[in-house]
Design brief:
The structure is a single chain. With 257 residues, the chain is an all-alpha fold. Helices cover 70% and strands 0% of the residues. The protein is built from 10 helices and no strands. Helix 1 packs across helix 6, helix 4 runs antiparallel to helix 6 and helix 7 packs across helix 8. The longest helix has 32 residues. 42% of the residues are buried. The N terminus is likely disordered.
Length: 257
């Protein structure tokens, strides 16, 4: 009798499986977990400490913005978000792990998209918890100067601040993919955010308003100090993050593992 033979064809890795795989990688890396927690702890802790120290004593100052004051800790929290995005990618380039990852997921576009989706989703979720708690904690010390939770500006700042943190994490993840080095990324971004942006902001006026951190943080103000509208500024940061992500994709697609 003729015998039938069965041939097996390789099936493409499902999107859900790749997303889950990238989630497991991030969750099991101690550095990424701690950097994500640091987003919350640094932002909320500094906001509460700063507003507890000053209270509403500065409310009569011409440049006092009661809404931004409760998010003042985001200057530190964004550094943790950048570290989170960086470490989520840089682990692939340690010990040749990227070769194993691309062997398991030959579709580089799927691999890259799944990693970025996890970075953005986790950063956004932590960002939402961070901004709302920072608002509540900081506002508790502002007395009558505090903004109400029902104000339109308040909701916009809380949601926008969370999106801003996710964009900064994506910015770092894209740049790390392009540079293939977490150290190189942090050596560029942290001095840029902490030093260069501040110096350029004081020296060059409106041109510095289009830097990724300065533009995105306009969403945290009731009365933004720059000419950019709050959501326009967030859009500028999204363009920076998009450019970094596209550069990372170009690098991943063209280079050998």
């Amino acid at each position: 009798m003729p015998t039938s033979t069965s041939t097996s064809t390789p099936t493409s890795t499902s999107t859900a499986a790749v997303l889950r795989s990238e989630w497991i990688k991030i969750r099991t890396l101690r550095g990424t977990v701690w950097s994500l927690l640091a987003v919350f702890l640094l932002t909320v802790g500094f906001a509460v400490a700063a507003n507890a120290a000053t209270g509403d004593s500065e409310a009569d100052s011409a440049d006092f913005d009661a809404l931004f004051s409760v998010f003042i800790g985001l200057d530190l929290g964004q550094i943790a978000a950048i570290s989170f995005g960086t470490m989520s990618v840089s682990s692939e380039y340690q010990g040749g792990a990227i070769r194993a990852s691309l062997t398991a997921v030959p579709n580089r576009g799927l691999f890259y998209a799944a990693k970025l989706a996890n970075v953005a989703g986790l950063a956004l979720a932590m960002g939402l918890a961070t901004t709302f708690v920072s608002f509540l904690g900081g506002s508790a010390f502002l007395g009558e100067a505090a903004r109400g939770p029902g104000d339109g500006d308040t909701l916009r700042a809380c949601l926008g601040g969370a999106v801003y943190l996710a964009l900064m994490a994506l910015f770092a993840a894209g740049l790390t993919t392009a540079l293939r080095s977490g150290l190189a990324t942090l050596s560029i971004l942290i001095p840029f955010i902490l030093v260069v942006s501040m110096v350029l902001g004081e020296a060059s006026g409106s041109a510095a308003d289009y830097l990724p951190d300065r533009a995105g943080q306009q969403v945290l103000y009731a009365d933004p100090p720059s000419d950019l509208a709050p959501l326009t500024g967030l859009g500028v940061t999204a363009l920076w993050a998009g450019a970094a992500v596209l550069t990372g994709w170009w690098s991943l697609r063209r280079r050998d593992a």
